Amino acid sequence: MLAELGLEAAEDLFASIPAQLRQKEPLGIPDGQSEYEIRDFFESRASESARGYACFLGAGAYSHFRPVVVDSLATRGEFLTAYTPYQAEISQGILTSIFEFQTMVAQLTGMDVANASMYDGSTAVPEAGMMAARITRRQRLLVARSIHPEYRQVLETYYRHQRLPTSTVNWDPRTGQLDLEDLEASLSDDVAAVIVQSPNFFGIIEHIGEAAELAHRSGALLVVVVSEAASLGLLAPPVEADIVVGELQSFAHPTSYGGPYVGILATKDRYIRQMPGRLVGATLDSDGRRAFCLTLATREQHIRRAKATSNICTNQALVALMATIYMTVFGKRGLRELAEQNLAKAHYLADSIESKEAERVFSGPFFNEFVVRPTARTAREVNALALASNIVGGLDLGRFFPELKGTLLICATETTKRADMDRYTECFGRIP
Fold first, then answer.
1. Which among 22, 26, 64, 400 would be 20 to 30 A from 113, CA to CA?
2. Does 261 share its domain with 389?
3. Is residue 344 part of a domain?
4. What is the pLDDT of residues 376-399, one digit of tens each?
């Protein structure tokens, strides 16, 4: 830079400033800190006037550390004001970022191809079921009861007018995993797909391979739902599945009062023409240069409504971009370390709570969420005591599952501090 400017030293950049006004000694500032430490510093200063709350809620919305570079890049004018990419010749930048997003999602899920994103995880699930019905030409779907209950509510709303009847498959009351015997008994030659979530709503990791074997044996597809993307940094990708859908909020956006989020849908090559939504492909322009364009997207805006695979008319390009930047910053090794921190902290918290007056409800392996039943106090009392100590406790599962009333679904991520976990643990103890 100095050579280009015709200068010999960095000091020459300041030649216009009188010498007596220039700073000659090093600035009296402390050594550099990591982004974690800087965030903690400013949050602690803010807490001096408005104390924050430690949070142990998960249930589909997860608090993860987001490097500031995510928002710094995503809010650049080139991205923030970009129009939806109908005209490829003026949208190469956006199309390129979407192509990278698709590539990373395919790698993350172990699938061959992913689309440009879905509205969110809850709408991606029913779209996957309808896709499976088109592929198999069957009309019934088996849905695990351990899928996020709000996802199931959206699914039921979709299917009410799609003439796609659904049946539910129970979980094993001991492990919290899918009841494979119930699944096998429920399968028949009219089932288009089996839809399971892993880690499921209780945080339990499912046996995807066994579920896939049963589904495929009867000619059905397996749809795997992932609502906690951080788990894919550590768990084996669900390669046995035919379609993988879910939510990438963990990599893209803070919890932020519930949105906006970004759904994903990935599948095998052979099902590519039945994918809903947009798909960006790589091609060559008239000069032989690499270019990107929308391809194989049988949306209602492109072809006759009766032939469309879905009525999804856009994609979550901006939030998908945030997820793409996040995954790029962390990389494969970083995502694994992130997942390992989630696993370690959740297991530390579970062990601590069990050492008090509480018991784990399910014995199955878990990632960063688990279910406990308080024994010395009610779940309501535990959460009330926690709230008084500026702690947002776990979710009382009685809200969605009557048989689990009085149990708490608790989450710990890499942002959870050990001191807060210890404080929350004390809320489970006996009243002095």
1. 64
2. no
3. yes
4. 899 999 999 999 999 999 999 999
